[in-house]
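Posting here for the record, re: thiamine diphosphate.
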Amino acid sequence: MNSRVDLSNAIRALAMDAVQQANSGHPGMPMGMAEIAEALWIHHLKHNPANPAWMDRDRFVLSNGHGSMLLYALLHLTGYDLPMAEIRRFRQLHSKTPGHPERSCAPGVETTTGPLGQGLANAIGMAIAERVLAAQFNRDGFPIVDHHTYVFLGDGCLMEGISHEACSLAGTLGLAKLIAIYDDNGISIDSEKGQIRQWFTDDVKRRFEAYGWRVIAGVDGHDVAAVERAIRRARREKSRPTLICARTTIAKGAPTKANTGAAHGAPLGEKEVAAAREAIGWRSPPFEIPQHVYDGWDARQRGAAAERRWKRRFNAYEKQYPEAAAELRRRMAGELPAGWRADCDALLAGVNAKTEAVATRKASQNTIEALAPVLPELIGGSADLAGSNLTMWSGSRPLGKAGGGNYLFFGVREFGMAGIVNGLALHGGLIPYGATFLVFSDYARNALRVAALMRIRAIYVFTHDSVGLGEDGPTHQPIEHAACLRLIPNMEVWRPCDAVEAAVAWIAAIERRDGPTSLLLSRQNLPFQKRSGEQLAAISRGGYVLAEAAGAAPQAVIIATGSEVPLALAAQQALAGEGIAVRVVSMPSTTVFDRQDAAWRDAVLPPGVPRAAVEAGVSDYWRKYVGLDGAVVGVDRYGESAPAAEVFRFLGVTAENVVKAVRSLL
Ligand SMILES: Cc1ncc(C[n+]2csc(CCOP(=O)(O)OP(=O)(O)O)c2C)c(N)n1
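Prediction output follows.
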């Protein structure tokens, strides 16, 4: 038996057997990329299976995540804690081997992939993170942050628009330590019906060269030595990201299904699997790997030695630069700086004392300005709306073609931005934010969803949060967006009503370690709200009594968010004049409020007291708070192009209508 060939064939066997056993999955890609995986994982990848969290490991992203069995096979074979029992349970409930790789499902899975193209954007974020951290922490003779980011991708990733957004920016930024390997097999799903060239004829080489990438084209993806050489050349590159285009045959080794769409996403079938075994000379039964193959793959010794070498370097660095070393440790652990709480308290006290009426987007910028100097891990940017989103602060240093920085001009690339922000968060050591108009959160939406699925600390700043943006009109006026974001499980959403709530929202987003946050901010100025100390503390509960009914128990409760809180307060006053006692609840974060205990929720929204809600967005969402018998003043149509005050009046988002709504309840 040729033991060399057995290494890649082990991947083929595991992929076809696991897919066959699960009776679902994608055998074709792992069988087609087996030699490429061998070339990278055995000859180049710097990793330690015993410590998947080693901070200076190379990052590996499988952007064509449907080929998950490739990753699981690699993790198993190289010695990660992913036993064969888990490979046997591929795609079964609560296994560590779900259909598509999910971050943290198994040690060594860096990010959740499957939605094509996003892994590529994540990898670009990781490569940016490496460069930023290297610039901040490396010292002469001490390259302690010094790793590559590798990403596998297929035709699907390249057809997705996000690949254009993200790769265009990666070229502009000159991310030399990013190495992408393209599985150029001429097959995607509809290839069952015809060849891919009916729907994908890009000249990929010239496309990426036009982005400013280095392209190593025409590599035989089944020639381990050729791929190994291409990766070696790519690693020497100093100023550009590299794309290696590797010609492969999907499901290579399967006698009748290789090079067909049929092998993309379905079990090969018992007969074909048996024939493939025969064809590739694989004699072992399913889920058995000969010892010499395990020995060939085992990366534990090499990995431990690599990490030891790095640790020696880090220890020497720590001796010379104890503060920097401690800071890097802190940041990679995701901990906030000592004194953080005191800084936040001082900030809140200052904002509260200032009593300033500002747009919450401006309040957000003021918060960034106050916190960024004590939070060097904060890195962010906007999708070409820096002046509108107000995401820059006095210490913003834009990232360019070389070196570090803490500000990203993402360009007009919302989806790419969100995928990159996710990659920055996944890398560790940074707390990233990305910004655009709320209405364009849709462009980024699937990356927001994946961030929530992964539970990563990514912060999205969405300004111009309602029809209150005015003259730009219905194309730019979000209607359903706040509700849509709140419906994403694990997504925290804040829509603050003034500078104080905006600061609390930012602090909560930064302190949240297990999920992303969307901050919905107004274009227009909003009045400052006076609060007691108790009320100040209650903001972080997501919903609280901002203005109690005067003189009597409340006959009704008005719930409001953001720019509609002043309308609720005006309605409260008007109703008081009629002898109707009403409580106003400010609900900057429904998602946070929903997690409070019943005692808090009932204290804020007393059961049995009628409720009205006011928010310049779809009314349906508020039914869960006001009930079918409650009233909602909302916007269930597209907006209008006119000055903000006129639009509010025209759409009926007014204090008078809130008054009417409350009256209708009594
Ligand atoms: C955003 C997105 N759209 C659609 C799909 C469904 N899908 C999974 S794989 C695939 C085709 C991918 O083709 P290619 O990258 O060439 O993979 P190969 O057939 O070579 O394995 C599609 C459409 C998906 N996973 N993500």
